[in-house]
Design goal:
211 residues, alpha/beta, Rossmann fold, 7 helices, 30% helix
């Protein structure tokens, strides 16, 4: 039987040091045939222009509109990509545990050449999923970042950096958040969240299953 090429509709953007095996982003790529991880040549010492160029190349290689699924520094990459000539191809972005650049630079020895934290409103729908005890993004900074990006914002409680270390392997609840984002064009479940107010996962009606 001939193989069937499934169009890519979702690009997955890992953060600093990439997303190792067992990370929910890697599970996501395997569980969703239309997803592709955007691999970078240097995960340890990220350079904004190099990462942006790779993302632009991946977007250019696909047909149709795309969703972005970022984690940590991958969220910041998505926010910088908003100024790309290809940004009109993005239907929406799920941004999980975005990191604050100043905080991240103090926690890692390698130089992070990512410039200033992007503050411009994103030209596509976006949903930020954050944690109340994320070492890479204080809650007050999370609120300000989501407000600046024009993103809907949900916290899922004390969940660390929403990565393997904090117990997030095959995070199936994340799929639900992406579906919620996709429904935004039909109905806006976060219509009231235009001033960056924090919604809990319970308010959003989402599950917190970690398996």
């Amino acid at each position: 039987m001939p193989s069937i090429d499934i169009p890519v509709d979702t690009l997955i953007l890992p953060g600093l040091n990439g997303s190792p095996e067992g990370h929910w982003q890697r599970h996501w790529a395997r569980d969703n045939p239309g997803s592709r991880v955007v691999e970078q040549s240097d995960w340890a010492c990220p350079d904004r222009q190099a990462w942006l160029s790779e993302l632009e190349q991946q977007v250019a290689m696909t047909t149709g509109d795309l969703f972005l699924v970022g984690h940590s520094l991958g969220c910041v990459l998505a926010a910088h990509f908003a100024e790309s000539r290809l940004a009109s191809r993005i239907r929406g972005a799920l941004l999980v545990a975005p990191c604050d650049l100043d905080t991240t630079e103090t926690l890692h020895p390698c130089i992070i050449r990512f410039g200033a934290m992007p503050r411009r409103r994103l030209p596509f729908p976006s949903l930020v999923v954050g944690s109340l005890d994320d070492p890479y993004m204080p809650t007050d900074q999370l609120r300000r970042t989501a407000r600046a990006w024009g993103s809907d914002l949900v916290d899922i409680g004390n969940a660390g950096h929403i990565n393997i270390a904090s117990g997030f392997g095959r995070w199936t609840a994340g799929y639900d958040f992406l579906e919620l984002l996709k429904l935004r064009g039909e109905r806006d479940p976060f219509a009231a969240n235009r001033d960056g107010r924090l919604f809990t996962a319970a308010v959003a009606g989402m599950g917190l299953a970690l398996n």
